Amino acid sequence: MADSLRDQLLKSGLVQKLKAETRPEPVRTSSGKPANRPGEKPAAARPGGGKPTHGKPPAARGSPANTSRPSSGGEPDLAQAYALRARSEREERERVQREAEQKAREKRERKEQVARLLNGKALNVADAEHARHFEHGGKIRRVYCTQEQLVAVNRGEIAVVQQNGRYLLVLADIAQQVKAASAEALVLLVDPNAPVEDDVPADLIW
For the chain, what are the domain ranges? Predict the structure, then answer.
């Protein structure tokens, strides 16, 4: 009799209605969200933290983006180094060339100035017989003078200058001008006030 009554109650749906009425309703907080029931873990402590992960692996979440550029194997740096070295070598060659041209130009100008100073000023005599020796370029050289010129050379009144491989006799004041234009052109100019280093007479022919 009891079983048939239970069956009748199940068929009529009263049992399901009674279960629904006796199930405890979830307690809600002031914000309207359901509170955790006693013994239940909070949503943040449960796997997933209560928020969707959108399928990302745990290792990818929260990790900073890799913004470093891939290494290029040093090829740009090497090419830049070659370019800098080539430019430096080119600039050095240009600098050396400019300096050489400047020196050649200055030497040419000095030579032209000496030529103007010596134009018509040489005192050399074609048939002079007295040789005046002197040291020049590490060797003993000589220039032929007359007797009067030899004395004047030893007194510092006449000097010896070089032009185009020739040794010319000129007056001391002309020699000073030549020295100012080109110091290497002046070969011999005796200082009469210089102390005598030996007892050899200044007018000795040797």
Answer: 82-206
